[in-house]
Amino acid sequence: MSDLTTASRSKHDILIDAANNLPPTPTLVVHPCDATSLQGAIEARDAGLILPILVGPESKIRETAEQAGIDLTGVEIEDVPHSNAAAAKAVELVRAGRGELLMKGSLHTDELMREVTSSATGLRTGRRISHVFIMDVPGHAETLFITDAAINIFPDLDTKRDIVQNAIDLCHALRIDLPRVAILSAVETVTTKIPSTLEAAALCKMADRGQITGGLLDGPLAFDNAIDPEAARIKGIGGPVAGHAQVLVVPDLEAGNMLAKNLTFIAKADAAGIVLGARVPIILTSRADSVRTRLASAAVGTILAAARRTTTPSSKV
C-alpha cells in the first residue's frame, strides 16, 4: 500500500515526514563549495534528515559559509585540497564506515561517479548503478518514478534489468509493496523498427521468468497510455499497469532527461533524485532545485539507508 498518495498534501512533504521518524543518517557531502550545495546540506541537517560531514577544502567551505550567512558550528569538515580529492576521500570514508549516504556538492556528477565506480577503490556492487527521479507532479495522484535519466546513456538489456530492479527496490523501501512498472517507448506494440519495444517485451518476459522481481511490469507502453486510464481504455490496453503506472522506465537517458525536465518546467513538478546500485545511496542535487526538492532527496536517502540496515547484502538497493 503506497504512502505517497494524497489529495491535500505534497507527496514530497509526506516523504520528509516519514524520514523525520528515522534517525538522521551520517552523510558525506562532497565538495560543498557554493552557497546552494552548502545550504542544502545544512537545511537537511536542520530538518533532522542527515548528519553531514563536509568533504572539501576547508578554507573555501568556510569562506562560502561566511558569505552566505551559514552557521557551521558543530559541523565536521574533512579538509582536502580540491574536488577530485573530495570525491576520493568521501568514497574512502564510506568504505571505512563513516557514512551511509553520499551527497553531491558543487562538483560535476562525472567527477563524483568516477570515484564511486572505480573497480579498485569505489563502491560498486553486483548491480549496475542507476538514477531515479522521484516526481511530485501537481494534479497527478501518485508519485512518479522516472529512470534512468542521469547515469546510463544508452543502456543495453542487461543494464535495463538492473535499472528496473533498482527502481522496484526503491519503491519497496518507500512502502510501495508491488509497484506498477511501465516500460516506455513511442508506441504500445512490438516492432523491429523501434528497438526499445523489443527490449520492453524482453523485460516483461524476464519478470515472468523471475529475473526481475517485486513489481508488475508492462510494456511497451507509450507515455499517455502508461499514466492516463482513459488513453489506455481508448487503445484497448488492459491490465493493472496501463493507465496507472508508478515507475516509468525510459528507453535512454535523452528521453528520460527530456521527460523529467518537461514535467519539472511545464507541469511544475518537484523532482527529487537518488542514485542506486552502489554500496550506499547517492543524493544528486541540482542548483535549480527548490528547498523542498533538496529535502525530499535527502529524505529518500535516509529512508533507503534505514531500509539497508534491515536487509541482507544480497537484497540491498
- Indicate the CATH class of one domain: Alpha Beta
Secondary-structure element order, as H and E? HEHEHEHEHEEHEHEHHEHEEH
Major sheet strand order = 8-7-9-6-5-10
> Please, what is the CATH homologous superfamily of one domain?
Isopropylmalate Dehydrogenase
Number of beta-strand segments: 11
- If you average the pLDDT, what whole number results? 93
The CATH topology of one domain:
Isopropylmalate Dehydrogenase
Inertia-based shape: globular
Offer a quick outline of the entry.
This protein is an alpha/beta fold. The chain has eleven helices and eleven strands.
What characteristics describe this protein?
317 residues; 11 strands; alpha/beta; six-stranded mixed sheet; 40% helix; Isopropylmalate Dehydrogenase; single chain
How do the helices and strands line up, and which of them pair or pack?
Elements: H1 11-20, E1 25-30, H2 35-46, E2 50-56, H3 58-68, E3 76-79, H4 83-95, E4 101-104, H5 109-116, E5 130-136, E6 144-147, H6 157-173, E7 180-184, H7 195-208, E8 216-221, H8 223-227, H9 229-235, E9 247-249, H10 253-265, E10 270-276, E11 282-283, H11 291-308
Parallel strand pairs: 1-2, 1-4, 2-3, 4-11, 6-9, 7-8, 7-9
Antiparallel strand pairs: 5-6, 5-10
